[in-house]
Every structure is written in C-alpha cells, then in structure tokens.
Amino acid sequence: MFPCARILSSFQSRTILTRALSTMTTKKLLFVKHFDGEPKPSDFKVVEEKIPALKDGEVQFEALFISVDPYMRPVSVGKPLGQKMFGAQVARVTESKHPKYKKGDNVVGYMGWETHPICNPDTLESPFGAIEKPLVLPDFKKLPLSLALGVLGMPGNTAYFGLTELCQPKPGETVCISGAAGAVGSLVGQIAKNLGCKVVGIANKKEKLDWLQSLGFDVTIDYKEENVDKMLSEKVPQGIDCYFDNVGGEMSSTVLSHMNMFGRVAVCGAIAGYNAKLHH
Ligand SMILES: NC(=O)c1ccc[n+]([C@@H]2O[C@H](COP(=O)([O-])OP(=O)(O)OC[C@H]3O[C@@H](n4cnc5c(N)ncnc54)[C@H](OP(=O)(O)O)[C@@H]3O)[C@@H](O)[C@H]2O)c1
C-alpha cells in the first residue's frame, strides 16, 4: 500500500521505498480529484492490475523509490482525472524488449506512481509534456540510489545551475535562500558556501535551522517565529547580493527590499501559493 498521507506531508524523506507485491500484479495510484488546498488521500485511488505482456520496444520496471515534489501541485491543475499520478521514480529493469535497456539496469524516469510500470521509453512523456526517456544510472557504488531523485537528480541540477548560472555568486557575496531546508534550498546553501559566499537560510522550525547551521549556513531565520525584515536588518546588514527564491509571496517582497545594487534573483519556485484553495 502507498502510505499516501505520510508521503504527502513529509518534508525530509521525499522518497519512499515501494514494496514489491507480486511479479504478476502492479499497483497504481490514480489521480481522481483535483486538489483543493492541501492534497488529501481522497484525491487518489489505489488500483491493482495484472501486468500485461511486454510488447516490442517496451520495458518493465520495478519501482524502488518514488518522488513527491512541489511542482506536482501546480502541474496537476491541467491534468485529466482518473489517470496514473505522474512523477519520477528510481526503478530497476525487470524485463526488456528495448535494445538500450537491459534487465538489472537502474534508471530514473517519469514512470509515475506505480509499483511495476511498463513503458516504451521512446514515447514516455514527462509531466511537462516533453518526451523524456528514463535515464540509465551509472554504478552508484555504495551511494543510495534514491540520490538520483535528490542531489544527483532534478533538485541537485536545479540548485547547481540556478545558483551558478542565474545568480552567478562571487566569493564574499551574500546569498539568501528561502525554502532553505528543502531539497533544493539546502543544496543551494552548501554550493554557495563552497563558492566562498556568506549564506542566509530562511526556514521554519528549530530542528531545521540547527541542521542548516550544521551544513555551514552563516545566518538562519525562522520565518514563522521571527520577523524576517527585522532579522535581515540586524543579522545581514551588508545586504543581499543573490536571492534564490523557492517560496514567492510576501517573503519575496521582504527579501527583495534587502537586495544590494546589481543583485541577482533566481525565481526557482513559489511554493507559498501552490496549495491555494480553489475559488468556488
Ligand atoms: N524551476 C525548477 O526547475 C525547479 C526544480 C525543482 C524545484 N523547484 C521549486 O523549488 C522549490 C523547492 O523545491 P524542493 O524540491 O526543494 O521542495 P521541498 O524539499 O519539498 O521543500 C519545500 C519547503 O518549502 C517550505 N514551504 C512550504 N510551504 C511554504 C510556505 N507557504 N511558505 C514558505 N515556505 C514554505 C517548507 O519548509 P519550511 O517548513 O521550512 O517552511 C518545505 O519543506 C519549489 O517551489 C519547487 O517548485 C523548481
């Protein structure tokens, strides 16, 4: 069973180890109701189906880790109901009739929320509508394969290229990150530290701020417990040169008022608005 409620609310462990039920059936999580506010278990339905015979060009996978990402919330708005929930997973090839995938290969790809998906890699669409073949992973040695959904995957690429190409931080500059304890934000901060920057992280809850400090963040602000404007004035008097924004909304307006001349902003996400209620 997919522990749906738990994975939708988890912040740290965004991936879950799926349990192989049987080699004859596959379990899918169908998206049956458009979200209104926070996603709920009743927005999904679990179905179990017989695994069909593999056709030429197709590959059968066994899901190892399924990712839950913030983009799913806004992207879901345009998706038809009754279909398998879209999303990325790390999976192992269990059978293949495609020349580029062999049994035992580990891949990362957009096979959706299903335990034993079958797809034709040449026609597999990402949630954003482009054809994106599952990527065969190199040998991770002792590293966990789930990293292909984290630092070695989409969040890691977002953090690295968003910071280095859009913000272009210079040593000694101050980089501020909202959503700092998330998958992307926590990596942005660590990369910025490696580039010789002073790093300010905005997140909620003491445990997260403590963790960010253990990663080397110079200043941490709890946006629910503290006044961000006041804290930035007090703790970041030199101003902000780069703002990596994961959150949007009111927090962005506050941080932007602390930017230095010729500062750079990477608008990575606007998570503050993702779970908005529908207007009835
Ligand atoms: N442009 C791209 O290519 C791209 C790629 C990946 C991700 N993104 C975007 O990057 C952002 C972060 O993604 P992620 O994967 O790092 O997310 P994540 O690991 O799920 O972390 C998200 C964090 O955002 C914070 N948050 C949630 N609601 C908030 C609110 N209303 N106000 C302020 N903070 C809030 C929460 O931390 P606290 O409890 O500490 O507030 C949460 O842990 C998202 O906006 C996502 O859409 C963009």
Query: Low-confidence spans: pLDDT under 50, at least 5 residues?
Result: 1-22
C-alpha termini separation: 33 Å
Provide the succession of SSEs.
HEEEEHEEEEEHEHEHEHEHE
Ions, cofactors, ligands: which are bound? NADP nicotinamide-adenine-dinucleotide phosphate
The third-level CATH topology of the largest domain is Quinone Oxidoreductase, Chain A, domain 1
Number of domains: 2
* Number of discrete helical segments: 7
CATH class of the largest domain: Alpha Beta
Globally, the shape reads: globular
From the helix content, strand content and strand pairing, which structural class follows? alpha/beta
- Rg calculated over all Cα atoms: 21 Å
Helix content: 10-25%
The total count of strands amounts to 14
Please report which band the strand proportion falls in: under 5%, 5-15%, 15-25%, 25-35%, 35-45% or over 45%.
25-35%
Biggest beta-sheet profile: 6 strands, antiparallel
GO molecular function: 15-oxoprostaglandin 13-reductase [NAD(P)+] activity
Organism: Apolygus lucorum (Small green plant bug)
GO biological process, one term: prostaglandin metabolic process
Protein name: 15-oxoprostaglandin 13-reductase
